[in-house]
Amino acid sequence: MLSLLADSTAGNLVGGIFALIILALELALFIAVIAGFWKTFEKAGKPGWASIVPIYNIIVLTEISGKPMWYVILFFIPCVNFVASILVNIGVAKAFGKGDGFGIGLALLPFVFFPILGFGDAQYVGSNSISQS
Known about the structure:
- By secondary structure, this protein is mostly helical.
- It has one domain (2-119).
- Helices cover 68% and strands 0% of the residues.
- The chain has six helices and no strands.
- The chain starts with a helix and ends in a 14-residue tail after the last helix.
């Protein structure tokens, strides 16, 4: 009986350590996305703090992408929001002189691509030259 208790305690300890490692990785990814968003917003001439305000960050991201403001509504429609996110992020990529593939990366792997965009050498070229689609 005592050995079962010891095995159970050791298992709980290993499980707890594993959970802390996963939590630390999730926190690091979260911070990477926030920092990348913040720097990307600043590069586009928008306030960095706007990246952490829910809903307002979608509005600002839509402005950066050059998409019409009604795209914000699409973010609240299930399934459609996924497509809208890809389209807006492609617009953001183009506004920084990047291609469609980079925009898809922004939508699907923001913890990788937003820090690259924010801290990299990409310059905001504006959304005026982007077609309003």
